[in-house]
Amino acid sequence: MSDDVTRTRDEIAGVAAEALRHLLWLRDAGVREIAPPAAALRGGDARADGGPVGRREGEGAAVRGVGTSASTPTANPTPTPTATATPTATSPQTATAPATSEKGCGSPALAAIREALGPCTRCRLAAGRTHLVFGVGNPRAELMFVGEGPGADEDRQGEPFVGRAGQLLTKMIEAMGFRREEVYIANIVKCRPPENRNPEPDEMDACEPFLRRQIAAVQPRVVVALGKIAAQRLLADPTPISRLRGRWAEVDGVRIMPTFHPAYLLRSPEEKKKAWEDLQLVMKELGRAPRR
Ligand code: SF4
Q1: What pLDDT is attached to residue 17?
Q2: 138 CA distance to ligand 1 middle (Å)
Q3: Closest CA to 271 of 23, 20, 49, 51
Q4: What pLDDT sits at residue 45?
Q5: Which of 57, 148, 234, 283 is the one with CA 20 to 30 A from 187?
Q6: Distance CA 254, CA 135 (A)
């Protein structure tokens, strides 16, 4: 057998194994049916029934002035940064050239926020970072995810949610019928806390205004707050995440859905079902309710 044939066979086996892992994850999450991408069938909106998500722990202050109209949330088009991406019907792809080459700066407004941050030393977290992790994704996403802060992988790569928890988040996003490139992802703090500790209140106070400006620039219809830190901070509400999750909140016209952090779900997979219930509420809000 030639090397090419062997390599192709190994690649197919790898894809099949990855597909199996994803299906098992969905099953564990309590998903019983997966709708095929509608675009493939009738040119409609692509969606899928997916698995639950997770969260981490968090804490709180206020995300005020996120800057969108309270009365008329905007259904944002969702340009994709990759020219080869396949558009979906619910998210027209009107690719916009990034204002800068840096991740998460795909519009002039976002680029201006990044420029305002500069080589930030506004809090002690600057001392330990490799990369300032600004954000990533569609600058006009209708759906945004906010976590608490970068971990080791994110600090190394300069992109939020790229480690194991990030891989789970990507699966959650895909289970909701989105591609990762269609949403926007950011954190409360943009530099990695040492030893992956929770960010301190003064660190969040220093960094959060820039997140608020990012939310105002992106104007998502829904922000999913991942974990205790993000949820409590965004909502200025110290209620435990176990009671915040699954309940809609609204800050300055932006609908916010708290749910578990993917890192927490990795540790507590039995909670995936609850997280998936939370995401189903988001899908319904965005007109992507899963089929029954
Ligand atoms: Fe600046 Fe935010 Fe990093 Fe602190 S965490 S140094 S405020 S970018």
Answers
A1: 54
A2: 22
A3: 51
A4: 31
A5: 283
A6: 18
Q: Ligand 1 pocket, 189 CB below 6 A? A: yes
Q: For residues 230 and 25, give the distance between their C-alpha atoms in angstroms, rounded to a whole number.
A: 25
pTM, entire model = 0.70
Residue 137: exposure state from Cβ atoms within 10 A (0-12, 13-18, ≥19): buried
265 lines ligand 1 (CB under 6 A): no
Considering the chain, what is the average pLDDT of its residues?
Answer: 77
For residue 233, how far is its CA from the centre of ligand 1 (angstroms)?
Answer: 16
**Cα(59)–Cα(205) distance, integer angstroms:** 12
Closest CA to 39 of 84, 90, 74: 90
Q: In the sheet where 254-259 sits, what is the strand order? A: 136-137, 184-187, 143-147, 222-226, 254-259, 249-251
Its sign, for the CA torsion 244, 246, 249, 254, is positive
> For residue 19, what pLDDT is reported?
57
Predicted pLDDT at 252: 85
Please state the φ and ψ torsions of residue 59, each to the nearest 5 degrees.
-165, -175
Position 288 scores a pLDDT of: 83
Pairing of strands 254-259, 222-226: parallel
| CB distance 51 to 29 below 8 Å | yes
Q: Which residue's alpha carbon is nearest to atom 7 within ligand 1?
A: 207
